[in-house]
Amino acid sequence: MHKSIFYFLLLNGGIAFAVDPSPAPAPSGAAQDDVAASKTPDALWAHISDQTKALSDGMRQQDRSVVALIPKILTDAKGFAAQYPTDPHVWEAKMLVGQIGGLALRLHLDNAPTPEQLTQEFTDIANAKDAPKILRAEATAFLVSEALQLAHAGTGDAGANWDAADAKIAAFEKEFGPDFTFGGAHPAIVVLRAQQLSALKDSPDTARYQATLQKLSGDTQLEVAAMASQQLAAQKKMAELKTKPLDLKFTAVDGTMVDLAKLRGKVVLIDFWATWCGPCVGEVPNVVAAYKKYHDQGFEIVGISLDQDKDKLLAFTKNNGMVWPQYFDGQGWENAISKSFGIRSIPAMWLVGKNGFLITTDAREDLTGEIEKALKAP
Questions:
Q1: Given pLDDT bands bounded at 50, 70 and 90, which one contains residue 218?
Q2: Would you state the torsion angle of the CA atoms of residues 332, 203, 365, 20, taken in this order, to the nearest 10 degrees?
Q3: Is 122 exposed, middle or buried (0-12, 13-18, 19+ CB in 10 A)?
Q4: 326-327 and 299-305: which strand pairing?
Q5: 199: domain range?
Q6: Is residue 32 predicted with pLDDT exceeding 60?
Q7: What is the mean pLDDT of residues 300-310?
Q8: Domain count of the fold of the chain
Q9: What are the backbone angles phi and psi of residue 276, rounded to the nearest 5°?
């Protein structure tokens, strides 16, 4: 029951969902009497499970209203753990206290735990030998993510923080093994190493990023080695882009032939995105507005969709006025084009100048400013 929220948080770097983070209205007193109203632990656990599923589904659908469920689930999970300490579900309840508490903290809800309390919740589970292995692993993975966030923040001794995070990942692999999985498509260690590389890539410590890539390219976990090798190859390809025009050619999902070589003389935005990506969806109005404003001045957009559902992609682009061509192969994160360029997070917006050379891989930061500057260039 708890795994859906765990995957969402872990795979999205601990960010719950792209909604207004202002506090949600507190549930009414009647809504808070669930613990008292439940006559048996089974009844209470069934209620908590239903509420958690509703929250998880709402998060994926970007439904702001489900934020109101967070305080209720947190209260009920705490109550369950306190009332039924010997129940088989008690460790799952404790895990929910940590996971839901993390959401409450990020959304600044009134009953949210402090960061220190949250860390302690996961530490207690990770160190509890009588807790199920899967829950100990999940708690440990959250602590790894926390360590990576601390290192990425650059506060204190950054080098020591990166070393500590790397040590936690190595300890995770030693305890749970290179092939341990939470039930997803990839072993847990692959997800954690991907988080590590993503954090390092965005940090100013380029030397550490390069050293880590080199080290992991020879990792005994083959998927980790392949991931690092792919990023090294993408780096080489990116370096080549500085010496020659960007080469990109494909047949769009609507049958349109796209060839950047034929768009010389125009400024082109290459938008790596997906309909399931909250931040990507949040950027859509900005991208559509830019297209309408600058298209007649020589501005084009090429979408690289990491979706897996073709019909959903077509419906979304039609409903949102995204009239430009979209690359789609249904492979999600294994999308052939994004993979070849080493794209590890989305949205990613690349801007290509009139001469076909890549201007920036971070056009999202100042989209209109970058476009205007590129259009004025000779």
A1: very high
A2: 70
A3: buried
A4: parallel
A5: 3-233
A6: no
A7: 96
A8: 2
A9: -85, -5
